[in-house]
């Protein structure tokens, strides 16, 4: 192995993420020339950026480096795996959002508040399309399908889970989302490792969907809920998340002999 090989591995991870940033910023700039950016059109611009970026990310996913150990996935993933992953993501999202909401972090982060206002400043249909369909597909392809798999081929499973989660958190560019994305990123990487991209995407959809429904429809909202109610809701969500992950782990151990090989 050449002495500079670690820099090659690192470049293989950084390059796709960097290209995504370059493409998304160029598209945002061009869209800004057409119409001034504001909260009302932010979600539409986000959808356009994602659709334009998706083919580039997909090309990196389909052409992994030689050393990259791809996580095999069934052509027809079992429905119970998708449902359990969806439940794990939604429950994790509720519990983690509640815990973060009990801290002053949200009020401290002006950038997080700006992003939240922009994402939830459109119609429910557009928010679900962008946040619960397009974003999970794009981000799972990039951060689990590309970054995690390349880190796994370089560092092994556990370091790859940790590093990809850290990268996922950092790329959200504010402390609140760094903590949230970083922690849920570990769950998504674990799902990617043992069940493949569809399971990771399903969990991401679950987490984002529950966030949109809480914000726009008041479902499981903390508004008007006392501390006791918050604690109970958080505890129930945590138990449901642990139960879903436990059932998934049993499936790995029982059905796939410790590894989901498809």
- Count of beta strands: 0
Topology pattern, helix = H, strand = E: HHHHHHHHHH
- As a percent range, the share of strand residues is under 5%
Q: Which runs of at least 5 residues are low in confidence (pLDDT < 50)? A: none
For the largest beta-sheet, the strand count, sense and barrel status come to: none
Helix content: over 70%
Query: Helix tally?
Result: 10
End-to-end gap: 31 Å
Structural class comes to mainly alpha
Shape: globular
Overall mean pLDDT stands at 87
Rg for CA atoms: 19 Å
Describe the SSE topology.
Elements: H1 5-34, H2 39-62, H3 79-101, H4 105-108, H5 110-119, H6 124-155, H7 157-170, H8 175-195, H9 197-217, H10 227-255
Any overview of this molecule?
The chain starts with a helix and ends in a 7-residue tail after the last helix. The protein is mainly α and 262 residues long. It has helices at 5-34, 39-62, 79-101, 105-108, 110-119, 124-155, 157-170, 175-195, 197-217, 227-255.
Can you tag this structure with a few keywords?
single chain, 262 residues, mainly alpha
Summarize the structure.
The protein is mainly α and 262 residues long. 79% of the residues lie in helices and 0% in strands.
